[in-house]
Amino acid sequence: MTPTATRTGIVHLTERAPQISGAEMVASLVPPPQFTDATFESYRADPAYPSQQEAKDALMAFSGVAAPAARTGLFRRAKKGPELKPGVYLDGGFGVGKTHLLASIYHAMQVRRKYFGSFIEYTALVGALGYQNTVELFRGSDLLCIDEFELDDPGDTMVMTRLLAELVASGTRLAATSNTPPNALGEGRFAAQDFLREIHAMAVSFQTMRIDGTDYRHRALDGHAAVLTAPEYETAIADAATTGLASDDGFAALVAHLATVHPSRYIRLIDGLSLVGLRDVVPLTDQSAALRFVAFIDRVYDAQLPIRATGETLDLVFPEEMLAGGYRKKYLRAISRLVASTLD
Question: Which domains does the chain have, with CATH numbers?
Fold first, then answer.
C-alpha cells in the first residue's frame, strides 16, 4: 500500500465546516496522542509529594496490575485489603500527572470495551445521539475514563451523573479527573467534596484521591504566552507550511466561527494540522465565546499542536472579570495550555 502523503500548505479554519457522526465520536474516545504510550511505569512520582506515589499504587490495584501481597507462611492467605469501589476520582492541580495516570488505567486494564474522553466529549455525545441511545451504547462497557470532569454546569453534571449511575449498575468501572488549578485560592482542598456533592447520587461509588505537586512543565500560571511580531509570524507560518499543514486565521474571525461549529466537531476542525496560527489576538468580551475558545484550545492541546500568534499574549485573552467568575477553573486550565502551546 502506498503511504499517504503528508499534506502541506496553509488553510483557514474559518473556511472549514466539519461534520462528525456519532460512530466517529465514539471511535475517537481513546487517550490523546501524547498519552498513547502512557503507563504506570513511565509515571515519575515526585518524592517531595508522597500523594503521587500513593495514588499510583492505589490506581495500579484498581487496574488489577499491582503485585500480589506475599504470603506470610505455608498456605497462609495475605491480609485482605479494603474493597475497591467501582470508581476512582483524581483531584489535583495542573501538571501533576492526573491525565497520565488516567491513561495508564486505560492501557493497563485488559478488558474488551473501554473508553477514554473528556467530560465535554461525553456530553457532546449525549447531545448528538440522545441520552437513551448513549446509555445503550455504553451499557455493558468495562471501563469509562473521564478527563477534566466539569462541575460548573449543573445541567451537564446531572446528565453525566444519571449516565454513570446506569453504567455502574451494568458493571462499568469509572475513573475521572478534576480540573482544579493549584493556585485557585484554596479551591483544590475542596474540589473532591464539590465533586461528590454534585454527583451525590453516585458519591458512594467513588474513591477520591488527592494528588499534590507542582506543574511538571515548570511554567507558572502567571507566565506569559509567546507572542510574535508580524514578520516573525509570517515566517513561522510559511516554514510550517513547507512540511505540514498550517492554519492562518484572524483571532476575532476564528472565535466568531467557533459559534457555528458544535464543540464535538472541533477535533475535526483541526484535522491534519501541524500548527495553528492566530493573528491579532485581543481580549475576549463575551463569556459564551470564551468558553467555546476554551473547548477549542483543549482539542488543540490534546493534539499537541503548537500555536503561533500576534497581538495580545494569549494568556491575557480572559479578562479579570471572567477569571473572578464561576468558570475560573476552565480559564486557568486554558491559560496553562496556551502558554505551553506557544512555547513548544
Answer: 9-18+219-343 (3.40.50), 37-66+82-211 (3.40.50.300)
| DSSP-derived pairing of the beta strands 9-11 and 245-250 | parallel
Say how far apart CA 257 and CA 114 lie, in whole Å.
33
Contact assessment for residue 278 and residue 308, using Cβ atoms and an 8 Å cutoff: yes
Distance CA 66, CA 34 (A): 24
CA gyration radius for the chain? 21
* Nearest by Cα to 341 from 182, 217, 165, 195: 217
Position 159 scores a pLDDT of 86
Which residue, among 264, 273, 241, has the nearest Cα to 123 in the 3D structure?
264
* pLDDT, position 149: 83
Upper half-sphere CA count for residue 242 (Cβ side, 13 Å): 5
Specify the pTM: 0.74
pLDDT at 194: 66
Rounded Cα gap, residues 95 and 93, in angstroms: 7
Q: Which of 225, 202, 196, 245 is nearest to 13 (CA)?
A: 245
**Nearest alpha carbon to residue 315 among 288, 299, 293, 289:** 293
pLDDT at 75: 40
Q: What is the pLDDT of residue 139?
A: 92
- Strand, helix or coil at 311? strand
Residue 60 has which C-alpha cell?
495500579
What is the rounded CA–CA span in Å between residue 127 and residue 129?
Answer: 6
Tens-digit pLDDT profile for residues 18-34: 987 777 888 889 998 88
- Cα 228 to Cα 100, 181, 284: the distances in Å are 31, 28, 19
In the predicted model, residues of the chain with pLDDT beneath 50 are 1-4, 68, 70-82, 181-190, 218-222
